[in-house]
Design a protein that fits this description.
The protein is an alpha/beta fold. Helix content is about 50%, strand content about 10%. It contains eleven helices and five strands; from the N terminus they run ααβαβαβααβαβαααα. Helix 4 links the parallel strand 2 and strand 3. Helix 8 packs across helix 10 and helix 10 crosses helix 11. It is globular and about 60 Å long. The N and C termini lie far apart (about 45 Å). The relative contact order is 0.15. The chain binds adenosine-5'-triphosphate. In the C-terminal section; belongs to the peptidase M41 family. Belongs to the AAA ATPase family. It is found in: Membrane. This is AAA family ATPase.
């Protein structure tokens, strides 16, 4: 792993390994490749390769983008600093920009204090800040976006601590082109809804700390939960455990799992109807 050869014994601020993320094999592999690339500083310099500054994770809600960013921090032995684009909504002019400055400053300070060589800055819902600029409107966001671009341009591989920016969005098509230019978010990784195998993997991860009855068949649950995100599958396991507890049984049976699938599916429907 990347972190092993670091000078200090300092530990990253989050403890989450890629093993705790189900499915997403391609996304994990692409991310790890990008992270491995980061540590070959000498080679990058020798070949005059443009350093990697930003990785963009794109895909529907609840598919594990935040988990991937956290695992990236652990894998590279970095401190982890995070903010959500929605935190910048309704901010007065200039406040968003200074908040961006603060996040990067905080990342550098935290890494230095922890004795770590790098920091992962994760910005969820980056489209809220980095949405397409539409001629004069949303001026406060413009300033925020400009500050983000300035910070990105200021990232250098030779600096210590090194900063890696990871952004996440469900709406890649909304992003301003300035963010997607080479030298900015130039690595895009798709984090899609899991397929059946991925769903089974995710269910097994969330069953690790739960007692399952002999008849509980997680592969069958995976087959019956087409279109579910990782977050919804986590809910299925949790709801099933609640049903089992209410039944006063020792373990989660397949009936509890089936009821939980229905509940999560219904929940989604009511949410959707409510927002109509
Ligand atoms: P959003 O776009 O809504 O921020 P996200 O893609 O960042 O979503 P996460 O926050 O990573 O989603 O996932 C939410 C929760 O769902 C996780 O804490 C975890 O419990 C569960 N989860 C999602 N995806 C996975 C996965 N691939 N493996 C295991 N658990 C998952």
């Amino acid at each position: 792993a990347v972190g092993g050869d670091r000078r200090t014994k300092a530990r990253p601020t989050v403890q989450l390994s890629f093993d705790e993320i189900g499915g997403q094999e391609r996304a994990k592999q692409e991310l790890i490749e990008a992270l491995d690339f980061l540590v070959h500083e000498e080679q990058i310099k020798k070949f005059g390769i443009r350093p990697l500054k930003g990785i963009l994770l794109t895909g529907p809600p609840g598919t594990g983008k935040t988990l991937l960013a956290k695992a990236a921090a652990q894998y590279t032995n970095s401190v982890y600093v995070t903010a959500s684009g929605s935190e910048f909504v309704e901010m007065y002019v200039g406040v968003g920009a200074s908040r961006i400055r603060d996040i990067f400053k905080e990342a550098r300070q935290k890494a230095t204090k922890a004795g770590l060589g790098s920091a992962v800055v994760f910005i969820d819902e980056i489209d809220v800040i980095g949405g397409k600029r539409d001629g004069g409107q949303h001026r406060e966001y413009d300033q925020t976006l400009n500050q983000l671009l300035t910070e990105m341009d200021g990232i250098h591989t030779s600096e210590t601590p090194r900063i890696l920016l990871i952004g996440a969005t469900n709406r890649k098509e909304m992003l301003d082109n300035a963010l997607l230019r080479p030298g900015r978010f130039d690595r895009h990784i798709a984090v899609d809804l899991p397929d059946k195998k991925g769903r089974s993997h995710i269910l097994n991860i969330h069953a690790r700390n739960k007692p399952l009855a002999d008849d509980a068949d997680l592969d069958k649950v995976a087959a019956e939960s087409f279109g579910f995100s990782g977050a919804q599958l986590e809910s299925v396991m949790n709801e099933a455990a609640i049903y089992a507890m209410r039944d006063d049984t020792e373990a989660i049976s397949h009936r509890h799992l089936s009821m939980a699938i229905d509940k999560v599916m219904m929940g989604e429907k009511t949410d959707r109807e409510a927002t109509k």
